[in-house]
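Purpose: get a first structural picture of the assembly so the mutagenesis plan has something to point at.
Setup: three entries, given in the order below. No constraints added.
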Amino acid sequence: MAAMRARHKIRAPRRGLNAAKTDDFDSLWTVLSSSLTEIHTKNASTLSFEELYRNAYRIVLMMRGDDLYESVKKLEKDWLRDTVQKRITDSISSSLVRAQESTDIQDQSEERRAAGEKFMGVLKEAWEDHQLCMGMITDVLMYMDRIISTDKSKPSIYIVSMGLFRDYVLRAPVRPDSPITVADVLESTVLFMISLERVGHIIERPLIRHCISMLEGLYESEKEEGEKLYLSTFEPAFIKTSKEFYQAEGRRLLEIGDATTFCRISSQRITEEQERCLSTLAMMTEPKVLEVLDNELIRKNIDEVVMLEGTGVRHMLDHNLLEGLRSVYSLNARVDPKKDSLARVVNKRIVELGKEINASSIVVAQAAQPTKDAKDAKDAGTEKKEKGKEKEKPVNQQTLSAIQWVDDILALKRQFDTVWEQSFLSDQGLQSSIMASFANFINMNPRSSEYLSLFFDENLKKGIKGKTESEVDTLLDNGITLLRYIKDKDLFETYYKKHLSRRLLMKRSASTDAERQMISKMKMEVGNQFTQRIEAMFKDMTVSEDLTANYKSHIARSADPDQKPVDLEINVLTSTMWPMEIMANTKDGVVQLPCIFPREIENLKQSFEKFYLDKHSGRKLSWQAGMGTADIRATFKRSNGKVQKHEINVSTYMMVILLLFNDLPDGKSLSFEEIEERTRIPKNDLIRNLQSLALVAKTRILRKSPMSREINPADRFSFNHEFQSPFVKVRIGVVAGAKVEDQEQRKETEKKMADERGGSIEAAIVRIMKQRKKLTHSQLMTETLTQLSTRFVPDVSMVKKRIESLIDREYLERLSEEPPTYGYVA
Amino acid sequence: MRFRVILTSCFRADRRSGRNIRGPHSALTDFLASNNISAAQIRDEYDRRVADATRQAAEEEEAATLDREEAEYEPTPDPESPEDKSKKRKRQQAIEKIKKSKEFARRKARRTGEPDDDDDALANTMISEKQRPNPGQLDNCEICGKRFTVTAYSKTGPSGGLLCADCSKKHVDGGKKGPVKKRSSGIGRRKNQSNLLDGMASHGTQSLLETCIKKVADNIDDVEEFGDLPPPVMHRLSQILSRKRAVTSKTLDLFLRPSHREINIYDCARLDTDDYHKILASMPRLTRLNLRFVTPMKDRVFQYMIDRDMNIQDLHLDSPNLVTDDCWRQVFTELGPRLQSLKLWNIDSAFDDETMQIMCKSCTGLRRLKLKYLWKIGDKALESIATLKNLEHLSLHFSQETNPEPLLQVITEVAPKLRSLSLEEFRLADDRLLQHIHEHCHHLSKLRITKNDLFTDKELAALFRGWSNPALRFVDFNNLRDVDMSNPAGPPEPVGLASDGFIALMEHSGSKIETLNIASCRHISHAAYEEVFSEHKRYPELKYLDIAFQGVVDDYLAQCIFRCCPALTRLVVFGCFKIRDLRVPKGVAVIGTMGAKLKVDGITQKEIV
Amino acid sequence: MADSTSEYVTLVSCDGFEFILPRSTACISGTIRRMLDPASKFSEALTGRCVLETLTGVVLEKVCEYFFYNEKHKDQANVPDMDIPPELCLELLMAADYLDT
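Result (structure tokens, whole complex):
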């Protein structure tokens, strides 16, 4: 080894190892060129790669690489032009060339198809051969490519030869002097095939795919930025014909006039195009052709399809065609993320159906209205005959209609929920638009709040009896769903409180648990503030229970043994929390003097007041006789001398009235006016209580003369010793005022509502201004409206009025006119 | 006569005839024998060639090398010495055992390439090594016979025994070499670092071509003639020789090939004026003259070029400082129209604005122009450049400070065809330059703008947003940053390439970018890096990335970079001190870490730079 | 003796030395890889035998040695260059260029 490290000359390899062969370009090229031709004629197996490579290598080392490059280029050009081009043009039948001019697809389609397939087959084969041969030639010439292309000034021979194929085959005229090129024929043939496939023929997909991949493999220029031929020529043409096709298809389908068919075929077309791009054309075309389809077939027609008479969305909704709705939805979703077309029709239908529900409830109510008095009278007369069964029924037709209304809406809601879930794939946008539609028609019914509250009232009183917990839960949830739609939540609150107070004071509530559940649900739905007062009502009730118990033990301790014991059960109600009409001791501005209680009761009252005020000084108790009940033990001396005793449960007023007769000698009577004067019971209440005592057959404890259906000031009343009842305990109800408000009461409620709202608005304005100090009018308006929106939707003019009023009262000041700006006055 | 050889490994079993001891036959030998072929014949062919090659070598040299050869091998006890038979048998068993050991195979592998490789000799060496006492034990000195304590440093004597400290010294003084230093199995750390800096990730073998080129360059003095080497190989040889500073009059001759059209010499410092003449005279077809460090080049070289009317199209010269302005002007007037590319570096004594003007007037066909460190040219030269409408590549690095306006004019005028643009150290250029580039350049694939602290991040981002130019392949924005030592965080409105500009750049060019240098653009935030190299981003072409002195880059970001750049081969991270512990993908060279732990393919190397 | 799918191929030098080596090993050379490409129809691909008219047996042997060297070290870091006798380096250089190795 060391010997080899000796200094010695390193000589170049002996040149001309195969000295026999000449080193001159022409002879080397002659060998090479004939071999390259052999490759093209598929005789490569007789060739030695090494020999070709060596020849090319030698030429390059002779610094003749550029000449070699050019010679190969020329050889390829000649080969393509003289041999391949002819083979291709020969395969193009004259019918294909003619078809180029005519546009009628159906024109001799079978013949054209066969000719097209033959042509494409030949073209495909030529392309594959060219690729294969050029691959081999490039391999043989790799040394040339390596040396020549180092500075990237020349594209590799492979790229060049591909360009030559494009120029001398694809862009060659199909006939001498013809302006039509092979590429044109290819394009029209492929488009023709596709149009055949679109009308349902089976075509040779792989063959087309091959030709398309050829277009994908070729570029407009040899430079880097050259665009694929497929993109520059074929795809635009394909998109154009697709556009025409889908315009026509849209028209055709609309003429059929069946929405379901339209949807079915459209979906089919979408799948078809996707498949076509996958298996016949190129994936990159898919978004483009689908866009054309969406535009031409769907976007332009969807409105009409949705509205189609008798088959459109309305029809589908009415017949619950979930499948059809789903395809409408998915089509609409393709072209419009908001699905406006569909939403419009659905919303319109919801409002229509909702209006029907509203209308029918009014019809029911009105049907009830005229018969109401008669029914009352009938009640009076037939009360005795109709027993327990009757009590299960809603008290009157109005309530019935309210509950019917709620049930109808819930049914409608359920129906659309199913549609939404199953056909609209729980789409968020549609959900809110459906909700808006429900809110829309629900709020069209001016009585919606009251009806809903009645629905709860009815259910909490009777409806939930015998139902399982989860059933109750669903029932309440349904109601709450509707509550969500109601705009004027404060109105609902008013009604709910009113109904609740009756349930509480009259102990009509079926389940305290259910009541509490209801409150917590409302709290979740509408917020804390909303349920505050309702909760306070419940609190009052529990506090009162304790109070009663305490008072009882207090009396037991300090009892004056002389006094007759009277059991007292008290509900102390916080005046601001309970409905106004219960608390009201004023009516139309006139202060109502308190009712005069009999002495025993008065003592009791004072005794309790003392007890209560000892505990809570500084409070004022006012007695609401209108709401209480009393148990009286009454003794009836029958004319036959027998004595019958009954325990009668009556309202406080009735008790007061009846106690008057205690002091009255038998057989004497009192006139209405006398009673009124001696009790100071409000006239309205007095009439109602006397009706119950004197007119209702079952509970006729007083006798009225003259016997008539009306209570008149001149009527006289006497104790009815002949009162008959199979029971020892008798409950005498007050003739109920209409459960559903009449026009007058309604107006009153609304007026009260308006007052209360005025307060809320002012409070909101002051809250905002206190925080912001300075605001423009528009900003203040927006903020006020947002703050109040959870409770009700205030009238803009009302807000303005309130602002004016606040300025007058110097809570606010005007800072500038342009733009109008207010400041807070501390 | 034909031979058939099966190579089952790359080691040739080599038996020198005349050896007394023969190890067991290798599989190859057996195979050859069974086919009635003698390996010796192949060997003889080789030897004949060696003999040919060495015939001229001096006898002394031969003798000397023979000595050296002897010294290269451990003296081994003569196997035929009168040892008693049992000892001999034991030894023989030991040899067999060792031959089966892994250590043996390893050592054998290490010694490839040394034709004297002999299994038995190696085994013997190992056995005598094994029999040596371990450090700390006592042994008798081989020469003086004294008893001494063996240490790790104890030397081996001529017959394989150990020497005491005194004799060791004498032994060395006596000119006898100790055992040959074991060759390490890999290349050294220094070489490794050097390769890293060259961007060669160290795994796998180099190509045979590269290996041979290096070998030729190593032995250039012994080369008489290159033979038919193709230009790219010549080019590479020239690069290596230039780097070794080995291009002399003599070696230059090797490159002078009448048929070649180009010559590239990257270091002409050792050539003289006559050598330039020689180049021109012996390469009449020359179209590309690429010579660097050409200090001795004088006017008459160009005169010759003009007289011969040479077809020079590409003229690339570094520091031709003895050429006068008159000569330059004449060259351009006479030969200018042919020039397609002109690259000049480092001229301080000549080449003024007027020459520049004449150049631009004459060289109308110029497509590529690069001027760096021409001391005498300034604003006026820029105005001249603006008249070169055919420019495709423009690269300027002036020594004089120039005003921003002439540069804007250049961009406006030459931009339409520009494919690469490099403007280094134009300190006064401002956002308007970026706006002009945005507006006028639509075909750039390479863009370099460096060393400037006036461009704002906002404008840099605007340059890339909505730019009609396709994605760039090469971007160099190094040192675009604010320099205010008192305010290291930079101004609130970022100056230089900062977060927004970086994001915009990568959005625009990420798909094609191959080379990216943003060294010292220090206002790019961690968040911007995270966004640019977030999980789903890919930069499929990015091979070279320089993020030197970007303090925010840490191990996490570096891993993000590796994830997003599958083609990366070089990552430059000088001054990125937060890079402490990296898993580097195979094939990536990470350059400039400081004491960081780099893990490549499971091999941990503690780097101490 | 070998067809286009055989695992071993034969390289033949201009002076008649034959080297049989695994196909994958031989294909480290770009030229040989293309020469043997089963997709091409050249005689070498069909027979699995490459006659390299420009290489002598000595050079080809060294080339083969490099093939194995390359294959052995392809996944290793810090591989030293294969040792090449200086007097062979120019010839080998030509061969490497020719074989695209």
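The longest strand of chain A covers residues 629-637.
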